[in-house]
Amino acid sequence: MTDAVSAHDGLTIGDDGLLRCFWQGGSPDYVRYHDEEWGMPVGDDRALYEKLCLEGFQAGLSWITVLRKRAAFREVFEGFDIERVAKFTDADIDRIVTDARIIRHRGKVAATVNNARAVIALREKQSCSFAHFLWQYEPDAASRPEKVTLTWLRANPVSPASAQLSKALRKNGFNFVGPTTCYAFMQSMGFVNDHIDGCSCANTCETARLSFTRP
């Protein structure tokens, strides 16, 4: 692994010679996440619910911390099965917060249970999938830069669309879904393509977004 920073602002060159967004840091698990998941569009309710909850757990921490605990999170929350988690009791929350393998934040654990119930209520109220509801907040292309740069990313930790999504989610009873959390969620689940211009994954994500059928 090399930490060499390329001539392209915000990119690093890996041992494989590929340019990647700097934040993956070169660690194998983070590189895989960057290359295979981050920015790829997702239309599955369960996966979107899981990621929204995990982004909430990330608040105040780094994503790599959550990523390395993701398998444990999936175990304690029964694969983030929405219907199962919605049935969790206070006793289940008490049990989960004692599990040292995850981030033991009672408020965030309780929010994961609450948000499962909120997904079910929202689907009944809106008569649509959770994915359809979320993808309505995909930013308009005109609001996006022609090329994503590190300078632009640092100046835009939130977006009007993420603020609108945050407001809509909170109105529907969701917790730990602030505008910054929602923007990180939108970046990771392909609502936007924020791979820095020149990153080896930028075109792959853009192609996936173009062929993706919105829910």
From TrEMBL:
This is DNA-3-methyladenine glycosylase I. The keyword Metal-binding applies. The keyword Cell cycle does not apply. InterPro entries: Adenine_glyco, DNA-3mA_glycosylase, DNA_glycosylase. One of its GO terms (biological process) is base-excision repair. Pfam families: Adenine_glyco. PANTHER family: DNA-3-METHYLADENINE GLYCOSYLASE 1, DNA-3-METHYLADENINE GLYCOSYLASE I.
